[in-house]
């Protein structure tokens, strides 16, 4: 499973050096200010409102984005987070990556009822399936199946079918 990113080759200096040809300076400034305010905001509903209103991110109802979460500053509108998710402390969610000869953009989709452990990094172009659990400190470099428990760097599937197991225990 490779990440779903779109590649943009550049010529001359590396793409980070050419940053403001890629994205507006004022968009980066606005995103930076909003994200920094949200990182320290203790009220989850206010934080989600900031993301939705000023950054055009999709954030589902009852989703909890913890303190110090770092959203992509340049392309936050490519981040989609479902309902009733928990995004752990100091997690980084990236929708772009700048390399030496190109930059890549990819939508990050986190489906409903996903738990992302603290200090994780989500790379561009991945989907984390419904009910998945990402262990703390994980680098999510590929898609995560629904109901899977993943962890590590590089990320490994530790167990699949977590969601079904929880539902079966509830019904018995």
Describe the structure.
This protein has 172 residues and is an alpha/beta fold. The chain has a single domain, classed as Hexapeptide repeat proteins (UDP N-Acetylglucosamine Acyltransferase, domain 1, 3 Solenoid), CATH 2.160.10. Helix content is 24%, strand content 26%. It contains four helices and 17 strands. The strands form four sheets. Strands 3-6-11-14-16-17 form a six-stranded mixed sheet. The protein has a four-stranded parallel sheet with strand order 2-5-10-13, with helices on one face. Strands 4-7-12-15 form a four-stranded parallel sheet. Strand 16 (149-151) and strand 17 form a beta hairpin. Helix 2 (25-40) runs antiparallel to helix 3 (44-55). 33% of the residues are buried.
Write the layout of secondary structure elements.
Elements: E1 6-9, H1 19-22, H2 25-40, H3 44-55, E2 58-59, E3 64-65, E4 70-71, E5 79-81, E6 86-87, E7 92-93, E8 96-98, E9 102-105, E10 108-110, E11 115-116, E12 121-122, E13 127-128, E14 133-134, E15 139-140, E16 149-151, E17 156-159, H4 162-171
Parallel strand pairs: 2-5, 3-6, 4-7, 5-10, 6-11, 7-12, 10-13, 11-14, 12-15, 14-16
Antiparallel strand pairs: 1-9, 8-9, 16-17
Enumerate the spans where pLDDT stays under 50 for 5 or more consecutive residues: 168-172
Task: Summarize the helix and strand pattern as letters.
Answer: EHHHEEEEEEEEEEEEEEEEH
The CATH architecture is 3 Solenoid
Strand line-up of the largest beta sheet? 3-6-11-14-16-17
Shape: globular
Strand content is 25-35%
CATH topology: UDP N-Acetylglucosamine Acyltransferase, domain 1
**Could you give the count of β-strands?**
17
Number of helices: 4
Distance between the termini: 35 Å
Computed structural class: alpha/beta
Give the integer mean of the pLDDT values.
Answer: 93
Radius of gyration: 17 Å
Mind telling me the CATH superfamily name?
Answer: Hexapeptide repeat proteins
What is the domain tally?
1
The major beta sheet can be summarized as:
6 strands, mixed
Give the CATH class: Mainly Beta
Q: What portion of residues is helical?
A: 10-25%
């Amino acid at each position: 499973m490779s990440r779903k990113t779109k590649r943009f080759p550049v010529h001359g200096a590396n793409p980070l050096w050419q940053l403001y040809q890629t994205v507006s300076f004022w968009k980066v400034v606005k995103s930076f200010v909003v994200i920094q305010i949200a990182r320290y905001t203790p009220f989850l509903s206010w934080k989600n409102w900031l993301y939705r209103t000023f950054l055009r991110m999709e954030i589902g109802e009852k989703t909890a984005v913890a303190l110090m979460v770092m959203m992509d500053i340049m392309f936050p509108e490519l981040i989609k987070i479902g309902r009733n998710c928990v995004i752990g402390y100091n997690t980084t969610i990236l929708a772009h990556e700048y390399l030496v000869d190109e930059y890549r953009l990819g939508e990050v989709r986190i489906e409903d009822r996903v738990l992302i452990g603290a200090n994780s990094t989500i790379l561009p172009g991945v989907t984390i399936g419904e009910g998945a659990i990402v262990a703390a400190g994980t680098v999510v470099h590929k898609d995560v199946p629904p109901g899977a428990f993943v962890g590590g760097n590089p990320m490994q599937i530790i167990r699949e079918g977590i969601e079904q197991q929880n539902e079966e225990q509830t019904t018995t």
